[in-house]
Design a protein that fits this description.
By secondary structure, the chain is an alpha+beta fold. It contains six helices and five strands. It has a five-stranded antiparallel sheet with strand order 4-3-2-1-5.
């Protein structure tokens, strides 16, 4: 029995080994980048989860192609599954864009946890200290101890200013004085 499928078994084992090697390389690159840019450990873990998902998906897809699954017999089931997934992904497009933004922000985000930022939105300028950067959103803590969650996709679309750590107290004092002056006028 194994003689009939020797080529497929060897090819599948090779593909699995290749994916595992790629996984270790990607994880090493992410860890090196995280250490170099002082990223928080749980954010690194989030990116590693995404890598693991992509590797598993690659192994399953490669195995299906190697073993030549007869799609005509499974076609109805697969088309139904892909239709449901397609509708779900279209309906949840913002979730996908937030996940993608989270990955982009991991590698290119110029801010880090602990920075005081101002998000320039035309309705309201959100501002606060970055408490956490998650897969879907950034958690800000305002000066009056409110917690704001702001979607990752919007963080990449809006203008954001960083107040230097040594200037935060001076900035908040100036903000308060401007607010008092505005109320007097």
């Amino acid at each position: 029995m194994f003689k009939n499928y020797a080529f497929e078994i060897i090819l599948t084992a090779s593909i699995v080994l290749l994916h595992i090697i790629i996984r270790f390389i990607l994880i090493a690159v992410v860890n090196r980048f995280a250490n170099k840019s002082e990223k928080v450990e749980h954010r690194t873990g989030l990116i590693i989860k995404y890598i693991n998902f992509a590797i598993i998906f690659g192994i399953v897809l490669s195995s299906v192609l190697i073993w030549g699954v007869d799609f005509s017999s499974v076609g109805v089931v697969l088309s139904s599954v892909f239709a449901v997934i397609g509708v779900a992904l279209f309906a949840q497009w913002s979730i996908l864009s937030n996940i993608t933004s989270g990955v982009i922000m991991f590698f290119t985000f110029p801010y880090k946890i602990g920075d005081y930022i101002i998000i320039h939105d035309k309705e309201y300028d959100y501002q606060g200290t970055i408490e956490d950067i998650k897969g879907f959103h950034v958690v800000l803590k305002t000066k009056d101890d409110r917690i704001i969650t702001y979607p990752n996709s919007l963080m990449l679309q809006k203008g954001v200013s960083v107040v230097k750590p040594d200037e935060v107290d001076e900035f908040l004092l100036e903000e308060e004085e401007n607010s008092i002056q505005h109320n007097i006028d």
